Description:
CATH superfamily of the largest domain: ABC transporter type 1, transmembrane domain
Number of domains: 2
Oligomer: single chain
CATH architecture of the largest domain: Up-down Bundle
Helix content: 55-70%
Strand order of the largest sheet: 6-7-8-3-9-10
Amino acid sequence: MPGRFSKPQQNESVYPLQRLIDYGRGYRVQIYQAIACSTLNKIFDLAPPALIGAAVDVVVKKQDSLIAQLGVKDVFQQFLILSFLSLIIWGLESVFEYAYARLWRNLAQNIQHNLRLDAYSHLQELELAYFEERSTGGLMSILSDDINQLERFLDIGANEVIQVSTTVIVIGGAFFILAPGVAWWAMLPMPFILWGSIAFQKRLAPYYAEVREKVSLLNSRFNNNLSGITTIKSFTTEFYEQDRIRLDSEAYRHSNRRAIALSAAFVPLIRIIILFGFTATLLLGGMDAVAGRMSVGTYSVLVFLTQRLLWPLTRLGDTLDQYQRAMASTNRVFNLLDTPITIHSGHLSLPSVRGEVELNNVTFAYKGRDTVIKNLSLYIPAGKTIAIVGSTGSGKSTLVKLLLRLYEIEQGTITVDGVNIQDLRLQDLRRAIGLVSQDVFLFHGTVIENIIYGTPDATLPEAIAAAKVAEAHEFIINLPNGYDTIVGERGQKLSGGQRQRIAIARAVLKNPPILILDEATSAVDNETEAAIQRSLEHITINRTTIAIAHRLSTIRNADCIYVMEQGKLVESGRHEELLEQNKLYASLWRVQSGIK
């Protein structure tokens, strides 16, 4: 089995096909075998005209034919020899056709498989900002449609190129051996055909690049609309969205129409050029045969070979069309692979994490926006529960992303147990942190699959125990299939509170030394909030817990409460201490508790 492919280095000057060839070096042997089988298949495919010429030679010359000169005078035996040769040639042609079809198709599948895995692996390593600036549908188009387009070319187009090249070399050589005078006229169209192919290729390239962009936008629209189908229905915007899809689809159709208009002109123009070579062979070769300068058998071979040489070139139009579509897709895939990874893993590993977290003069701003966190310093002792509160936009949730290194800080340091998180292995850092977000994401699958997500080795009893701690067991066993109930895409078959409790069970099962609760109860009713609070009281014992909250009642018992405003730390202390200070926290408490 070939090893994993290495990612090509960014170089805009390298032709897409060359980059693809460089990428597939792991399958060199299979590529050579496929090329050899395609070449041999075409050679045996071109042999029948020679047999026909030999048969005509036997009919015309009988005992003076070419085969007779080899010692076989009997006409019947000559035809037996030709029949036997036909059997061998047709059999070998079929064998090599099977071989090349299997080799090219498997090669296409292998490269498609590895390229998709490499592209997805690279995509996962990119920072969160990359995804926030791009549509999911556009990225899906690259991972699926573009890579499939490349596979279609490798499946068919590569073999076509090899066989056309073999045809030109073999028949061109035969022409110059059998009839040098006629060969020049027969081969005269070739430079014009090659020049036309290159010219069409250059003209088509930007058209197909535009086609790939348009289909990416269309896929993005479909993805957004299917994800937001509830919103579309509730706002009765079906006709509005239908019209937007129509416009995007029309743009895709229009860009394809322009490419088709150019690519469709290729074959008719090539046919006109081919006609010149065929007519020259028919006329000049015929005159030589009549004059006795060429045998009838040789003339028959030339007429057949001219057709076998020139007419297959009309397929260059389809091959060129596939090639340009594939190269446009190749560019998009390699542009993704060329995207630099900005957040790199450290090399240090912590055997055990106590959970001491410290931020020292941390500053951060999202790309193209004002600073969100400004010289922020705070200390979180191991095993303690701290809360971070503040108005919307104060930077609370941003701290979570910075601690998980979903974004990289601009200044300052963040340490876990005294070690800079930039020096820690990313997997170790994130494995030590359990996140329960207000925006719970459940994968399409069963309840049990979502609970053990991130802890795949967990047993069913362990998962059930985690669900009980999260007070999720009761409602789970009442679902149609219990723990084997399908939750639907994003968990849409469950209520918000049920999704939240499954997320807590998932975090409990992970058993991280650091637990982050990012507005974990903000979107649930009072009864569910009470249940979640009871479960949190159990799982936060002897565990470093960072609770980001909007409802102050949920964090009043925290060991320390940090109050943020406009990216800065403005207050800190226990609940009672902050009320006595009568500042921002006290103001927020009065608003939420209804005290005037």
